[in-house]
Design a protein that fits this description.
This protein is mainly β. The protein is built from two helices and 24 strands. A hairpin with a 4-residue loop joins strand 1 and strand 2. Its EC number is 5.1.3.15.
Length: 296
């Protein structure tokens, strides 16, 4: 999906502009260090491409960009719950229209901040006041920070994920390490399992790793790079690939799409809405993922 040759609707600075793809307004960054694209629909990072490298972020060629559906690929913001704990699945943040709050540059690159606040529409789904800010820092690494603030006088529970789709050359030749030994296997009805220290895929996975290391490494021989994923503010790391059968069942993923993607997600996991992590009145919580491409 080429987002960098499209004409600008408006130019905000030397490095930041607004473009349009189908029904989406997208904040586009083109700097000396990297290029990136962030849709206002969902606060959704669609691309992060360091100079002279393939994109780090995977996007489905069949993604629906109608401004209504969740976008397949990229980095969906799953909030205020993760998974099917309520409707809509993965919460409403990934299908809401975010606002561009600010953009700025520093010695490390470009920072874009998007915002989403509660409305009557969100309160009909989830009856709480909130203020979300999404900071996307684009430079030698990609850092995404979801800042959740509770401006109300009542604590509320949440679960969440930065549902990152990583772009890989060939899923069968990618080695992942650092996810930890223990996981909940959603493909085995939530069975608690133990795995090896390294993972090379040959089938579908949907796993919630409950004791991930500080850094998860995705070694990609085809692209001659390792993607270092560092998460903060989380209690789990989710890894997912639907494999051929799962991909063919999705209208917004090509049948072979699974071959070039792997989800490694910074996650606040909870088995229910009520048991989610609490944010006290007036307090905030940050969920962060930082992805650093390391080339040979």
């Amino acid at each position: 999906m080429d987002l960098y040759s499209l004409p600008a609707l408006s130019v905000l600075s030397d490095t930041v502009s607004i473009i349009e793809k189908d029904a989406l307004k997208i904040v586009r960054i083109i700097s000396g260090k990297a290029r990136a694209a962030i849709a206002l629909h969902g606060g959704h990072v669609m691309s992060y491409q360091p100079s002279d490298q393939p994109d780090v972020i995977w996007m489905s060629e069949a993604a629906i960009l109608d401004g209504k559906a969740a976008i397949r690929g990229g980095v969906p913001v799953c909030w205020p719950w993760f998974g099917g704990l309520a409707s809509p699945s993965h919460g409403f943040a990934r299908t809401s229209e975010w606002q561009l709050i600010e953009h700025r540059e520093n010695e490390n690159g470009v920072v874009v901040c998007l915002g989403l606040n509660d409305s009557q529409q969100t309160r009909d789904i989830w009856p709480h006041q909130f203020e979300l800010k999404l900071y996307v820092e684009v430079g030698d690494q990609l850092k995404i920070t979801l800042d959740m603030h509770n401006p109300s006088e009542v604590a509320w529970p949440f679960s969440a994920a930065l549902h990152t789709y990583l772009n890989v050359s060939d899923i069968t030749s990618v080695t992942t390490s650092g996810m930890g030994p223990n996981y909940i296997d959603k493909l085995q009805d939530g069975k608690t399992c133990q795995g090896d220290s390294e993972l090379v895929l040959s089938h579908a996975i949907d796993r919630i790793y409950t004791q991930p290391s500080a850094s998860i490494h995705v070694e990609d021989k085809g692209y001659e790079r390792t993607l270092k994923v560092e998460n903060q503010g989380h209690n789990a790391a989710v890894m997912w690939n639907p494999w051929e059968e799962g991909a063919s069942a999705m209208a917004d993923m090509n049948d072979n799409g699974y071959q070039t993607m792997l989800c490694v997600e910074s996650t606040v996991f909870s088995p229910s809405l009520e048991s989610g992590q609490l944010v006290a009145a007036g307090e905030s919580h940050q969920l962060i993922t930082t992805i650093t491409p390391i080339t040979a």
